[in-house]
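cron nightly-structures :: item 1 of 1
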Amino acid sequence: MNLVRVQASALASDPRLAPYANMRDAELAQRADPLDPVAHGGVFIAEGDLVVRRLIASRFACQSMLLAENRVEALQTDLARLPAQTPIFVAEPSVLSAIVGFNMHRGVLAIGVRGSGLTTADLLARTGPIVVLEDLVNHDNLGGVFRNAAALGGPGVSVLLSPRCADPLYRKSLRVSMGAVLSVPFARSASWPGDLSNLAHSGIQTWALVPAMGAEPINQIAQNTKAERVALVLGSEGPGLTPEAIAACQCRVTIPMAKADTMIDSLNVAMAAGIALHEVARP
């Protein structure tokens, strides 16, 4: 293992620590435009034991790690899986917090490399359901969808994002997903909503999840369909799917609800994705 002990003065002298510096300020710039390669610099931050372990085991390369001194022993087995040249920076908690710009109580950070990313064609080559998200900009909901996909979608599940969706590799999305963003393949649509038609032309049934009256109950259509693959298309909180996306789907489905409150007309998007996945990808 390539352990590098870090002193308080190292930030100015070691450019390899720059991605960790003043993390919140850097993430604000990234959040303003998640697709701007200058803002994210081709990398992302993984935080906490679980997410960092999943990074090490994932298709994404780990550029470096930054650990509190007292976290090294617990992670030794995982650290041994890294390439020998990967720097593992080790610092006292106070030094670590000074580098990142806030109290880093988790004590475990890593820099992942984004790479070139996957395409819609890569997702089409898989065998499981596809969760398609339109304009989902809330990082908590995005992370929740990925966690549900990993838990309920089966080994072939994947996620397709519309161009305006938030960044799944944003630190909060990664954390909420419990690292599932690193294991569930995802791609960003280059043609929206045209890619919905491309899915249908590839033999995948596209189901728009809507709360509207007249939509087919998803439990019924899931039991009756003979489709080998289904794409579940969900919109953002509040507005839901755009008319253009709904029109591009082959059918509209809804989740039946036994309401205790008539003011409730829909579910949280992450919860809706989980229920829908349970219906179409039953073990």
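cron nightly-structures :: done
The mean pLDDT is 89.
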